[in-house]
What we know:
Helices cover 74% and strands 1% of the residues of chain A. Chain A has one domain (2-512). Chain A is mostly helical.
Amino acid sequence: xxxxxxxxxxxxxxxxxxxxxxxxxxxxxxxxxxxxxxxxxxxxxxxxxxxxxxxxxxxxxxxxxxxxxxxxxxxxxxxxxxxxxxxxxxxxxxxxxxxxxxxxxxxxxxxxxxxxxxxxxxxxxxxxxxxxxxxxxxxxxxxxxxxxxxxxxxxxxxxxxxxxxxxxxxxxxxxxxxxxxxxxxxxxxxxxxxxxxxxxxxxxxxxxxxxxxxxxxxxxxxxxxxxxxxxxxxxxxxxxxxxxxxxxxxxxxxxxxxxxxxxxxxxxxxxxxxxxxxxxxxxxxxxxxxxxxxxxxxxxxxxxxxxxxxxxxxxxxxxxxxxxxxxxxxxxxxxxxxxxxxxxxxxxxxxxxxxxxxxxxxxxxxxxxxxxxxxxxxxxxxxxxxxxxxxxxxxxxxxxxxxxxxxxxxxxxxxxxxxxxxxxxxxxxxxxxxxxxxxxxxxxxxxxxxxxxxxxxxxxxxxxxxxxxxxxxxxxxxxxxxxxxxxxxxxxxxxxxxxxxxxxxxxxxxxxx
Amino acid sequence: xxxxxxxxxxxxxxxxxxxxxxxxxxxxxxxxxxxxxxxxxxxxxxxxxxxxxxxxxxxxxxxxxxxxxxxxxxxxxxxxxxxxxxxxxxxxxxxxxxxxxxxxxxxxxxxxxxxxxxxxxxxxxxxxxxxxxxxxxxxxxxx
Lengths: 513, 143
């Protein structure tokens, strides 16, 4: 009951004209960014963060704008999967498998509408999951001391590579690079400068917003330049949508699938190291095992469209749980959202729920509102978004680059920050070529300082005794999970990744035939 | 091979970072851990992971040809020039030039690129400065 009361308060906060308008704008931009191959949820949110700032939005409105973008991008990813067989973002990969065959059979409109409904169901249920689960997690988190927090951060980094990671050494390198970057600047506890090499600009440390925009947005521009991939993928395709509304019987037919996969996706989102891509993968494979008796999956079965979409949107909602309740994000985009919170001077974690409930519940109410807006936007207005696919990257990418520059320059007005951002862009490009994940770098720059502070606090409290780190059952559990999470992918990662690739290739083979 | 080189770079970085950590001047007021310990742990992680990559590298990525490398290099130079000259030229002119260059290099015909670059610049100026009131770099002409 208490929860419902808080939720009602949240709606009061979220239902102002300004917030509704921001949610609408965020949903629209998000769907567009999700639809465009090359711009995913993390880049999308990354580009918009500096803008949300320079516009001087308060904490709740800024969060509403950016989480609407996040949810919107999750909806948008499916559009190009279905119409072009090119996933708009990574989690939408599995939607290609049945979505594209449906489109080829002239049922593109049905596939889009059905996947829109599936996305809605997934996200809607996951938001309820967030409401129910986050306060419980907060109760556990209130038991955490500095030693447990240090173990929790380690757990986050150890599992960040994900279950499908192929090379854990590279994840570790990325995390160490990120944390290393965070240590640049004046040490918060003793006041001595570290790794600044006498450069005054570095005394404040490296601004993580600069790092994020450089790594995510600019490196994408360099990738497009490298391949001179300037023409729209949709050029030459005939994008016809066909009948828009799926029949009730079709929706009813897919409902059990949507409910099951929403649940599964939500769990995958909450668990560290899984995230939306894995959520949609698990959902699809489970559903295939469970209901595919006639072998229709992969040939345009509507349930094969509903399953991954409900799964990945539910995972997106689930990923917000650890981010809000513990302050430790489990996926790339939630890491970027954490950057938003930190930049707004909000520290997520258990105290957020007790001290700034208006932010939390306003945000959750906004998620519900955004979800309804997205459903409304994604079914009747889908034609608009399919046209977005015709914008060629040679026009789009320069805009992305220039908007990134505007955002960063708007915050600080300094050319030095722009140069640092270019540096990060180049670094991001090289690291991507080498298959080094960028998310641990971002998370490292975000969490490095509080990780170190918790370590030092824990040991100082215990008079310099390092064994205090493994002194409580709670921290021992977290350490054990961290070690398992790091070692497990070394054993299973290759198999799982190979299977994901294999499935995709099978599909491509069969569509060419 | 690429991975091995990267591993060596990582290892050197770890050593450099550890050395820089050891030379941090400690303040007389310090906590039990001090400012050096955590960076040293991170240096150790970076070093060990780099050694692992050297020992067991992945297959080399597909590096672009020399021409494509120069392409990316040139784009980087243009962006650096943009960052430096932005306060001098003002937002609209600098952005139009940079956007034109990028659009052209991504394969648009020169005249269309100029049009697209100018439109991009004017569009961003209109949305972010005139509508949203963001302060952008003012050039000699006031925009």
